[in-house]
Amino acid sequence: MVATIKNNKLTSLVIGFFVLVTVWWIALNLSGEQGGFDNYLFGAVYGTTVSLFGGIVGLVAAKQWGGWKSLMGRAIMFLSFGLLAEFFGQTVNSCYNLILGVEILYPSLGDVGFFGNIPFYLIGIILLAMASGVKISLKSFYSQIQAVIFPVTLLFFSYMLFLRGYEFDWSKPLTIFLDFGYPLGQALYVSVALLTYSLSRKVLGGIMRNQITFLLVAFVAQYLADSTFLFYNANGMYYVGNIVDYLYFVSYTLMTLGLIKLRMTAQSLRRSN
Amino acid sequence: MLTTANAQSLVKVIVEQQRMIIGPLAVEQANKVDGLTITVDLNEVTISGDPKKILMDLVDQYRRLFGQVSVEACKESIKKTLHQIPRQDIPDFLV
After folding, report:
1. Percent of chain A with pLDDT over 90
2. Under CATH, which architecture does the A2-271 domain have?
3. Are B23 and A209 an interchain contact pair (Cβ–Cβ within 8 Å)?
4. Model ipTM?
5. Does the keyword Repeat feature in the UniProt annotation (chain A) (predicted)?
């Protein structure tokens, strides 16, 4: 890991930025400020920088893996689209905060990006699962049972945690759609990620094993960030720059590092004998 | 006894399948196998040496990437060509 950071400028850049922003986040929270300009500035910097960078690096990596014409290329492309969707959402929110001086609206144009991330990540993880040999494992009955239990369990927990006792306001159909779509959509993609890990761990090997596992960790991190946001927001505890935003920053960073590593792998495969 | 012509057919379907998973890297990895040359369009496959060993080296080259998953993908890909090649000519590691 240390060698990877030393040998790759992009990785060093992302890790260096991560350390700087972490120090900034600690200082911001020690100051006790909530909802001020410093919070909004923090939100704008962390939210847009890594997601855009990771999205672009991912698209370059996807091309090296064959782009649309290959399973890995398409998977990497959808993960990059997911990061770029987050970039769009974060940019819109930052504009509301910094330019219009208002708190985040819900639903807003930003939700096009945040909600758009869900199908992109879902397709990305399904393609990764296919490349990881999940199809081979699915031949056994035990695996087929897992394939049903994982999503159903997570969907149930998400429903119980975020939607139990939900009061429907049919004058706001978009809000209802998003209130249900976010937790259930996120539960779906993280369950596919966990299922992929569970079903592929006995057959997936080689140099791709650690890289795909790393991406699965990034999915779980994104899910934790999304779930924490939903919980904080539902209880009126969210403000820009709190733990939720730091979790988002961690998840964007992990996904970006995973995509950089895939780019490096394609390059080293070309060079090696 | 695996003939060179049959080995060429097997190489072609294996690389074709791998290309669907890892893109152009599949052809590049195949060309790193000693005694094997394959064009980007997969139309020309040249084998010089023991066809069985070259096939084994090709599968091993892909195994480096995804482990057993790659081997299973190679096995899956040749199923379509099994009717063209006598069963006894197919190397054990591909069955």
Report:
1. 68
2. Up-down Bundle (1.20)
3. no
4. 0.92
5. no
